[in-house]
Amino acid sequence: MYKAIIIGTGPAGLTAAIYLARANMKPLVIEGPEPGGQLTTTTEVENFPGFPEGIMGPDLMANMRKQAERFGAEFRTGWVNSVDTSKRPFTLQVEGQGELQAEALIISTGASAKYLGIPNERENVGRGVSTCATCDGFFFRGKKIIVVGGGDSAMEEANFLTRFASEVVLVHRRQEMRASKIMQDRARENSKVTWSLNRTPLEVVAGPMGVTGLKVRNNESGQEEVIEASGVFIAIGHTPNTKFLGRQLEVDETGYLITKPGTSETSIPGIFACGDVQDTKYRQAITAAGSGCMAALDCEKYLEGHAVHDWSQSL
Ligand SMILES: Cc1cc2nc3c(=O)[nH]c(=O)nc-3n(C[C@H](O)[C@H](O)[C@H](O)COP(=O)(O)OP(=O)(O)OC[C@H]3O[C@@H](n4cnc5c(N)ncnc54)[C@H](O)[C@@H]3O)c2cc1C
């Protein structure tokens, strides 16, 4: 039995852990399938404040974990399969750990970028393949880049990347795009954006130094061609990791947890959400960390006012 269980150890969950542990709430933190979260899959992080020379993603996350441990956060490895929110305390079924209970929960399970599922794609993440223009655009100054996708986020990423790139080629498998007219117009008015429509991506082309292009099939002629570029940005959306919650908490049409504006409160009192799992817009390490702080402070307030259990007996 715990006062608070934090699910997920990305920047959101670990920041929540630091705050709750420092407030003497002895949180349990469940690491899940990707201990340290998404930043463990990248190399240099140059935009997290406090590191003027940048820091490697895995190092940043290892530091956050150490900081939470220093104040008494407990960590367990495991994948949360389900949560029963119908009665208090909340009950979690955790792979490898069995049943765990807590008075309050912080959900920080992130949102996974969707990939195309083509050869050489995953292997080259951090070597020219990216799912985050804000994070990685800066590394492609003066280079030619490909953006794959046909929605608003692809248009936005393409426009944003023209700040750095010499040319941005928008690749989409259809002739028509899902993006709103205004976003398409903005991209069309941008002289650095070129279009390669009706092309199906087949394979990321890469050499020892990283990505050199994208092999595509022209859907009209059936011909295959390689579009040369130093970077391939995949902008086909994200999947919030909320499946294990079933339909118990309020989510938007794409599955992101809905929080009360200006707070981390979900639709069930005592359950808080932070980081990318509730953020359809910013999805940055620093915003995840910031919202992790909010969740910890909201959780603390909740436990002070609502806890029904005598914690001194079980801790
Ligand atoms: C390649 C790459 C590079 C990036 N570079 C930058 C950058 O330079 N700067 C920047 O600000 N942002 C960057 N980002 C974005 C940044 O990583 C995310 O915004 C941030 O990690 C979100 O933090 P989070 O804590 O919400 O979730 P995540 O980091 O996604 O962590 C989610 C956690 O939840 C756990 N989890 C998921 N499901 C379950 C479950 N069922 N049970 C238990 N645990 C579960 C996972 O194991 C993981 O520990 C990058 C992202 C990627 C993919």
TrEMBL record:
Domain of life the protein comes from: Bacteria
Which keywords has UniProt assigned to this entry? Disulfide bond, FAD, Flavoprotein, NADP, Oxidoreductase, Redox-active center
PROSITE patterns given for it?
PYRIDINE_REDOX_2
InterPro entries noted in UniProt: FAD/NAD-bd_sf, FAD/NAD-binding_dom, Ferredoxin-NADP_redctase_2, Pyr_nucl-diS_OxRdtase_2_AS, Thioredox_Rdtase
Select a single GO molecular function from the record's annotations and give it: thioredoxin-disulfide reductase (NADPH) activity
Q: Would you tell me the Gene Ontology cellular component terms?
A: cytoplasm
Residues of the FAD/NAD(P)-binding domain = 3-292
Task: List the cofactors.
Answer: FAD
- Protein family according to the UniProt entry: Belongs to the class-II pyridine nucleotide-disulfide oxidoreductase family.
Q: How does it assemble?
A: Homodimer.
Name under which the protein is recorded: Thioredoxin reductase
User: What's the source species for this entry?
Assistant: Paenibacillus phyllosphaerae
